[in-house]
Amino acid sequence: xxxxxxxxxxxxxxxxxxxxxxxxxxxxxxxxxxxxxxxxxxxxxxxxxxxxxxxxxxxxxxxxxxxxxxxxxxxxxxxxxxxxxxxxxxxxxxxxxxxxxxxxxxxxxxxxxxxxxxxxxxxxxxxxxxxxxxxxxxxxxxxxxxxxxxxxxxxxxxxxxxxxxxxxxxxxxxxxxxxxxxxxxxxxxxxxxxxxxxxxxxxxx
Length: 205
Prior knowledge:
Layout: H1 5-12, E1 19-23, H2 29-38, E2 41-46, H3 49-57, E3 62-64, E4 79-85, H4 94-104, E5 105-113, H5 118-127, H6 151-160, E6 164-172, E7 175-176, H7 181-184, E8 187-193, H8 195-200
Parallel strand pairs: 1-2, 1-4, 2-3, 4-5
Antiparallel strand pairs: 5-8, 6-7, 6-8
């Protein structure tokens, strides 16, 4: 079984037997892990044909869908949790994708590289060049990342849309960073919902 700090944190937020949709699921390893550890059911969504073949090899149910085109074919509230792992920064239609996540699912989980990490800031300030790291491994000219943002940026994004943050974890090298996460963290994980979904779940926003 694959053991990763971010996978384990996501699993801890998901109820046993939940119905999960994993967007941009890659080879399906996260969904397979959640199936093994939390008994979840659901689907992965992926557009890359090679990744889809790996999902099938890993025993993961997968649909070929381009996320930028939306998820109109998926009914409202079809899933308990919708996950977008390390893909949000590559989306052109960021607001629409997040809104769609909270339409088809009661809660959303996103993970993303934190551009505010101190080494990234240092590379720009002292070297005058775009940062390259384990979490941002591409050069400026071949990166799929089109929206680089920080933990503070994402929290402002949620606040402006009245999204309720339910959980947050920030990691560096697999170690959780609770002190100054926007400065010391490389990978951020958020679980959140909106007011309508919180009411449906019996909570308050």
